[in-house]
Amino acid sequence: MKINNLEMFCVTNKIIPHIEKTSYKIAGVGKNHFPNDYLNCDSKDNIFYKEEYYSELAYHYWYWKNLIKLNDNGWVGFCQKRRFWIKSSSIKKKIDISNLNEHLLYQPEADWSEFESIICHPIDVSGVKKIKILKRGWRSVIRNPLILFNERYQNLKLHFDMHHGYGNLDLAIDLLDDEDRDDFITYVNTNTKFNPHIMFITKPKIANKWFRKLFVWLERCEKKIGFKNLAGYDTKRLYAYLAERYLSFWFKKYTVYKEHPWIFIEN
């Protein structure tokens, strides 16, 4: 792979015909049957049997164990079925499924030589309606009533506790290596924004470091949290939600990063 190339993988649990004619490599996860030209992740060294809890990470793991080329100097990136990287020049354009392919990111941009990783423009989780905080975050409010009146306290930890099982984030953070544990605690308690969707673009050697760190941690989390009580939208994909928050922290701590535009496309 040449240094100015970008190899993009789009992970999906359904057929996405509008992406099939692009240069993106489509990877299927889940129980659906996919066309023969879609990549799969149920062979060789895999965690396909945990896909319902890991979501797109099932393919990320397979790529890491079976496909990654550490000697390549090009860029490798990941997106997903409804969320895509777009060109910086397209950020103010009206984009829908009919013209999406014109605006998709296919090549590294001119300033990428200054960076080691590309992560999504962030989303802000603060500004939650009080009634919702009281309904889903009442235990957090008991501990800190200022959550209701000061958006600074409507941080990533509150958001995770409200939507993905109260206390699960704390349990997981306790299992991080010493070099990251305290920093990640600070990160989720002092930030109201994160870079979402487990999407990133980087070089294979950095991707290898990220995957090694991530999956070792998630294996520890499995032993502590397990799978038995994970159900529904809130917690079924808990390990993917944990990875999503950790990605924001890890790439910012360990790489020179740039935040880049992405778009949601219903299909």
Report on this model:
This protein is an alpha/beta fold and 267 residues long. It has 2 domains: 6-121 and 196-208 and 256-264, no CATH class; 130-188, no CATH class. It contains 11 helices and 10 strands. The relative contact order is 0.18.
Question: What's this entry about, in short?
Answer:
By secondary structure, this protein is α/β, with parallel strands linked by helices.
Structural class: alpha/beta
For the biggest β-sheet, the strand order reads 2-1-3-8-5-9
Spell out the helices and strands N to C: EEHHEEHEEHHHHHEEHHHEE
Please, what is the average pLDDT?
97
Determine the fraction of residues in helical runs and give it as a percent range.
Answer: 25-40%
Q: How widely separated are the two ends? A: 31 Å
Poorly predicted residue ranges: none
Task: Outline the fold blueprint.
Layout: E1 6-12, E2 25-28, H1 51-54, H2 57-66, E3 75-80, E4 83-85, H3 100-103, E5 117-120, E6 123-124, H4 130-136, H5 138-143, H6 156-163, H7 168-173, H8 178-190, E7 193-194, E8 200-202, H9 204-225, H10 232-235, H11 238-254, E9 257-260, E10 262-264
Parallel strand pairs: 1-2, 1-3, 5-9
Antiparallel strand pairs: 3-8, 4-10, 5-8, 6-7
Helix pairs in contact: 9-11
